[in-house]
Design brief:
The protein contains 10 helices and 13 strands. By secondary structure, it is of the alpha+beta class. It has 2 domains: 219 residues, no CATH class; 211 residues, Glucose Permease (Domain IIA) (Distorted Sandwich). Strands 1, 2, 4, 5, 6, 8, 12 and 13 form an 8-stranded antiparallel β-sheet that branches. It has a 3-stranded antiparallel β-sheet with strand order 3-9-7. A hairpin with a 5-residue loop joins β4 and β5.
Length: 443
């Protein structure tokens, strides 16, 4: 019975270790016994923290200088700059997807860990009752009580030897051993996921900064154009207040705003050129040249090949009920704060700015009578008249909850509204999305 009593106490010790940070309590008590030592330790800790902050600031400054030098070289060539923007946006969206999956895994691991801890806590009373019964037998505490196991899991494994003397406890000891083993594995997995998530957050910060600098460089090299556009921006904003719907906005922008009109003419010429040589195959190889100045794939031929412009959950599809007696004219994607928005296809920007209850609105003329409409972003990084490439960063979602009143959506996170139009009328965008984007949801 001595061995059995020792193993039961080992189980209790293991459970006690799970219940709280014993080491922290001992350390706190020790610190109270020696105030001078505690003060010295605090000062050393502060100095270490200060040194770490200084080292981090130095590394950030050096990284900033290196990145700016790299972008200065890239900016000398339009093709290289365009490709750098597309590549950086692709990396950022890939990291965003990886982070969303990691957060889902962490949620599941945390839930399982909580379940295991609750189960172990529920069985604590049973083992205490057994211990009380053993003590009542009047036996001396066995030497095993004085020997501490290296960790909680080893203590529980030791309890399995009770099978020979205390068969009633054997099954319980094995079950607790399994649960503690799983909990140990879970904790290791959770720590690993959190480390990887922290690393990905750092990568997201770096890529967002890179895109910001690349966008600044692109705009800097178009300073003359940007200055010339200032008056047109004001004219476009004024025009947006005079119209009530998207169809009228597109029509008037492409006839009354010079940069938008020029973009529309370029889109029309590109469509005519494509028609003259026959419809292109629509292969993705035609999108490889980042220096192209017109779509190399006709929009109508790009069905099944376009990427969704943002990572997120598709919460409403074209044709679904809009909740106010009508039907959706586009696709609604709920995404996370700060998500990168990329151009779903090549095209010319004919409107970029606020529009009524849509919030920030972006309209891209894809040629052939097709327009792509994006709404709900916080910041747009392209301008009227600009030609954008498939996958190029064009906007960023906000960080907080957003209500897109124009489409009757109110959710606790940002939402992006995507609408395709043909000759002014909304059409179902579903046939254009690539297979993986059309079939799976990305968080």
């Amino acid at each position: 019975m001595r061995a059995g009593g020792g193993c039961v106490i080992s189980i209790l010790a293991a459970l006690a270790l799970l219940a709280g940070p014993v080491g922290g309590i001992v350390a706190a008590a020790s610190a109270q016994d020696d105030p001078a030592s505690s003060k010295g330790d605090t000062l050393r800790l502060r100095q270490l923290e200060l040194d770490a902050v200084r080292a981090e600031q130095k590394a950030a400054t050096e990284s900033e200088q290196k990145l700016r030098q790299e972008i200065e070289v890239i900016g000398a060539d339009r093709r290289t700059l365009g490709q750098a923007l597309i590549d950086s946006a692709a990396r950022l969206r890939s990291i965003e997807t990886r982070m969303a999956l990691a957060e889902q895994r962490l949620h599941g691991l945390d839930a399982r860990g909580a379940s295991l801890r609750a189960s172990l806590d529920a069985r604590r009373g049973t083992i205490i009752d057994v211990l009380v019964a053993l003590q009542r037998m009047g036996r001396r505490p066995p030497p095993a009580i004085l020997i501490g196991a290296p960790d909680a899991l080893e203590s529980v494994r030791a309890a399995i030897v009770l099978g020979a003397t205390l068969p009633d406890l054997s099954g319980e000891a094995k079950a607790i051993a399994r649960d503690l083993s799983e909990l140990t594995t879970l904790r290791r997995d959770i720590d690993g996921e959190r480390r990887r998530l922290a690393q990905d957050r750092d990568l997201v910060t770096t890529e967002r900064h890179r895109i910001s600098l690349l966008t600044e460089e692109r705009q800097r090299r178009q300073d003359d154009v940007v200055r010339a556009l200032e008056a047109e921006r004001h004219r476009a904003a004024s025009l947006a207040h005079q119209v009530d719907n998207l169809k009228d906005l597109i029509a008037r922008m492409e006839t009354e705003i010079e940069s938008a009109s020029r973009a529309a003419r370029q889109a029309a010429r590109a469509s005519q050129a494509a028609a003259a040589v026959g419809a292109p195959s629509g292969g993705t190889g035609a999108l490889k040249d980042p220096g192209r100045l017109a779509p190399t794939v006709e929009f109508a031929a790009a069905k099944g090949k376009l990427p969704l412009p943002v990572n997120g959950v598709r919460i409403r599809e074209f044709g679904a009920s809009d909740g106010v007696g009508g039907s959706e004219k586009g696709l609604v994607v709920a995404t996370h704060g700060g998500a990168q928005v990329t151009a779903p296809a090549d095209g010319w920007v004919v409107y970029a700015g606020a529009f009524r209850s849509y919030g920030q609105l972006l309209i891209i003329n894809a040629g052939g009578g097709y327009h792509m409409v994006l709404a709900g972003m916080q910041r747009i990084s392209v301008d009227i008249g600009q030609f954008v490439l498939t996958g190029e960063p064009i906007a960023v979602m906000g960080d907080g909850p957003r209500t897109a009143s124009a489409i009757g959506i109110g959710v606790g996170q940002p939402v992006l509204y995507i609408e395709f139009r043909k000759d002014g009328s909304p059409i179902d965008p579903a046939p254009w999305w690539a297979g993986n984007d059309n079939q799976k949801v990305r968080g």
